[in-house]
Amino acid sequence: MLGSFSVGKTSLVRRFVESIFDEKYQTTIGVKVDKKITRAGGEPVTLVLWDIYGEDVFQKMRMTYLRGMSGYLLVVDPTRNQTLDDALALQARVQEAMGPIPWILILNKCDLMTEWEIDAARIGALERNGQSVIRTSAKTGEGVEQAFSGLARAVLNSPA
Amino acid sequence: MPEQAQRRAGSPAPEEKRGSNDNALEELRHIIISPEQEQIVEIRSRIENPERRVEDVSSVVAEAIQMRREQGDAAALSAALAPTVQEALHESVRKDPHVLADALFPVMGPAIRKSITETLRSMIESFNEALEHSMSVRGIQWRIEALRTGRPFAEIVLIHSLLFRVEQVFLIHRETGLALNHVTGESVATQDPSIVAGMLSAIQQFVRDSFASPQQESLNSLTVGGLEIWVEEGPHAVIAAVIRGHAPADYQVALKEAVEDIEGRFGAALARFQGDTGPFRAADARLQALLITQRRERSSSARKPWRAIAAGALVLGLAVGWISHEGYQSYRWSRFVSFLTRRPGIVVTSYGKSGGRWHVRGFRDPSATDPTADLARYSLNPDKADLQFAPFYSLDDAIVASRATNLLTPPSGVKLTDHAGTLAATGTAPSDWIAKLNERGPLIPGVVSLDTTQLRDIEVVSVEAAVITFPLGQVRLEPGEERVIARTAADLNAIRRYAERTNQTAIVSIIGHTDSSGIEGANQVLSNQRAAAVAAMLAANGISKEAIMARGVGTAQPLRTEDGEEARRLNRSVTFRVTLAPVATVP
């Protein structure tokens, strides 16, 4: 789980693993590892989820946490335009360090669609380039399952 | 390309003027081709001559390898070179080990130093631990234990310090932080190994980033309360052991060996690990081996329960022994008391135990046996017995008889028995004693009446047994029979005295007999005469005539059946019967 602080990475993991949503914001310090068995292409897949603390101006993400990573969800909070810029910049750094590995752009907080300030055209351009984009809400659960199982599928289909 | 152009332009000429111009052509040809031919020869010699070929390759081999690596195909290159390099190393060592030893020296030095440092560090740790223990309450307990058991303090510390248990072992893929395998000890609560492995890897990376040292050293252990997590890293695999208590330093060596072993066996699988943990199930046994607690610890833990069991068994044995001893004592006491209650002349009113002594309370007839003497029969210690019996008169038949016997001292031929207050005397006794019985018997406690029907007066018996014989047809005594008369007279006097004392009269019947010879009428007369003669003799011996009744019975009551002369002799006789009757009281 990659992305800026407070975009909802931990909430997505909790929704996915425990089917729980809590309005209270808890910042992640370091890494929280979780596990969930999902299905992709008809077979069970164990996802070991590293929920890494969100980047902010004080803390850059350590690339060492990404070692051995098979794929990632790049989470964006569309109510804050800055998070998309940061996410794409982060993605570039990750790609540089890890090479091309599967990733999915997650537009979280789709329950707050009215407050979105993100430019729909930029998303459209990314999608036209073949980038998977999934709209989710950790609060309502919308799209969460698809996001994780989609990543699992992408990882399984990607060349090792 | 000028040469080629020339060749193309002049090509038809040699065919048309072959015959005449052969030499010229040859010359021309030589001129034209000679430089190329020389080149061909030169190239050929370079190809065919191995020395030249080696020379050529040698000039580019380093660049070629460099280029191949840059093409990103280093794996194939390594694969191709590896066997040769290995063989070369073997060969080098075989030929001269010093060459490689010298080359490796700079590497081995630090490796050995690191190993020694590690060993020293763990030594210092245990030394610190020992020091710490020697200052603590536990340390004092251990000192006491050392004093008590006579073993050196260090040994005690060692035994206690080595109590540890490896609860879980994780095999983790270093690159991805995924759990490859996970084994646990019995009854250990575990978390999801994937999550734990992931967190451990994250922590490892965090530590490495935060406290990065140039040698890329890593976190070796974590301590959480009573748990320690020891981590040992290989190039591809990481083993993490969750330990409760303090493991000895050589356990780190065991972890190292396990990592090396697993790297060796699963090296290929580790390198191309894509998420399938299946192949690593084969490492189960190797990881299980790490769960085993250390032998010293095991032996001490094995010894400990035995000691506890032995102590428990001793305590239990003593308890059972005490309980059964107490139970047996109590059983014997109850047997003794029940025996006492069956004894005539003894009444038990209460018994019980207090202050370690058994108390029995009740009544005892003086004639009853002493219960203290019976303690031995029940193997009871008289010192622990407190027997208190108040005296009383028992009406028990046996006791009444015993009491009467004590008071009356009957002669040897007499037995006294009691039945519900009736004291019966059987046997023969002198009339004096019979008189005493009649006087005192009814006064004895418990005696209501006397039964003397089976008691015979010894004088009466003597009188009635006496036979005074006569010669055939005569009234005169046979010689010597006067002595019988005198004795009978003495007996009769005793009987008379007894009768007087007991307010009776004694009537003596003197009975004359004859044998069956002679005629019946004469015999009757003869028997009368014989009885009268004896009566006269007794009167002469002082027996009152009023007490004497003489009569003859002829042959009617023979003493014996006449089957010979001895029987006839006894039948020619006088015998006696004594009858005692109460004196008729005068109104």
Strand content of chain B: 15-25%
Structural class of chain B: alpha/beta
Q: What's the arrangement of strands in the largest beta sheet of chain A?
A: 1-4-5-6
Total separate domains of chain A? 1
3D architecture notes:
The complex is a heterodimer of chains A (160) and B (587). Chain A has helices at 9-18, 81-98, 120-128, 144-157; strands at 2-3, 31-40, 43-52, 72-76, 103-107, 133-135. Chain A has a four-stranded parallel sheet with strand order 1-4-5-6, with helices on both faces. Chain A has one domain: 3-Layer(aba) Sandwich (Rossmann fold). The model of chain A has no long low-confidence stretch (mean pLDDT 86). With 160 residues, chain A is of the alpha/beta class. Chain A has four helices and six strands, in the order βαβββαβαβα. Chain B has helices spanning 2-9, 13-16, 22-48, 50-70, 74-95, 97-135, 137-149, 153-161, 193-210, 250-271, 284-291, 295-342, 397-408, 431-440, 458-465, 482-501, 520-540, 565-571, and strands at residues 164-173, 179-184, 221-224, 227-233, 237-245, 346-354, 357-364, 385-391, 414-419, 422-429, 449-451, 455-457, 468-469, 504-512, 548-552, 573-582. Chain B has 18 helices and 16 strands. The radius of gyration of chain B is 69 Å and the shape is rod-shaped. In chain B, strands 2-1-5-4-3 form a five-stranded antiparallel sheet, sandwiched between helices. In chain B, strands 9, 10, 11 and 12 form a four-stranded mixed sheet that branches. Chain B has a four-stranded mixed sheet with strand order 13-16-14-15. Helix content of chain B is 54%, strand content 18%. Among the domains of chain B are: 2-48, no CATH class; 162-293, Beta-Lactamase (2-Layer Sandwich); 464-587, 60s Ribosomal Protein L30, Chain: A (2-Layer Sandwich), CATH 3.30.1330. Chains A and B meet through strand 2 and strand 3 of A and helix 9 of B.
